[in-house]
Amino acid sequence: MNQKRGRQAIKRLSPDKKDEVQQKDVVKSKGKQQKEVKKTEDTVEKKGEQKIEKQQIIKGEDKKVKQVLEIEQKFELGDGKFSTPTIKIASWNVNGIRAATKREQAVQYLHDNKFDVICLNELKADQAVFDKENLGSKFGKHYVLYLNFCKTKGGYSGVAIASKVKPISIKCDIGIDKHDKEGRTLTAEFEKFYLVACYVPNAGQKLERLDYRTKEWDVDFQNYLEDLKKKKPTILCGDLNVSHHEIDLANPAGNKKTAGFTQQERDQFTNYLQKGWIDTFRHLHPKEVKYSYFSARNNSRQENKGWRLDYFIINKEVTNAIIVSDINTNIEGSDHVPIECEVDLRKL
After folding, report:
1. What is the pTM of this model?
2. Residue 289 region, left (φ>0) first, then alpha (ψ -120 to 50), else beta?
3. Which residues are catalytic?
4. Which of 48, 51, 169, 260 has the most CB atoms around its CB within 10 Å?
5. What is the pLDDT of residues 236-273, one digit of tens each?
6. Domain at 196, CATH number
7. Residues 182 and 54 in one domain
8. Cα–Cα separations (whole angstroms), residue 205 to 107, 259, 274
9. CDD domains, from UniProt (predicted)?
10. Known binding residues
11. Which residues are paired to 188 by β-bridges?
């Protein structure tokens, strides 16, 4: 019914009925106005809550950033200059710093003066345990120690860099929250290069983290490394949790659906190298069979049935700076063995 026909209908009604109809219209009108007012109030309230929530998120992120900065500010920094033309770097997945340092050979290795930098991964400790058990004393006094622990649970992940030279800067993690909770990377900036110590996430026994590993972590971490190499030559080292080719593990046929040798992980590693990075061991030893990880079962180490999971990677523009890249199978103390390289700083 349009407004004109409505008014004509009201005119034909008795005075009492007119009043009743008009009152109903007033009530309807007021009800409509109240609904509109309430809707406006709800919208304003919702916007207010969203604004508060956004402010809280921003404050939370600011607080997190502030905490990271405070942690990084505690590190001892310097000019990042080495006094020798060449340096030696070691990287070792210790599979638990407390267990490893109960082995005399491991402690001797961490005290070895021949290395300018030693990178460790899979510490399996937190700051409280590290301090309580004085684990820093397991390293030689000629080293300054830099640590990044898992933030979500103790006894998991974690990386360290022990250096004779204090770096210009130290960065924990890669700056993406979903990746930064497990303490998997530590970046040290020296005068002529960046050094990234890394423990890449494992895809899991049932491959439950395969998608996260290949579609999220690998993508974001590779982008992080790409940004670094635009500024300075970059060396990546650590347990990268992938055997790239069949030569890199003892039983390739039986492990095609095993974490570390799935096609997805291998393809992502190929994509990464094709962006301009070099696997230094395979570059210098194209046909050598040598492994850096041995299962604790089935006499794997004694029978030399292992995996090559640990790498030194460098951007290809400075490939000739790598003098040595090798795997030290003589050292015990973990299910992994150390990897070692020598770098000519004059060629960086």
Report:
1. 0.81
2. beta
3. 199, 239, 336
4. 260
5. 999 999 999 999 999 999 999 999 999 999 999 999 99
6. 3.60.10.10
7. no
8. 31, 6, 28
9. Ape1-like_AP-endo
10. 93, 122, 239, 241, 335-336
11. 170, 195
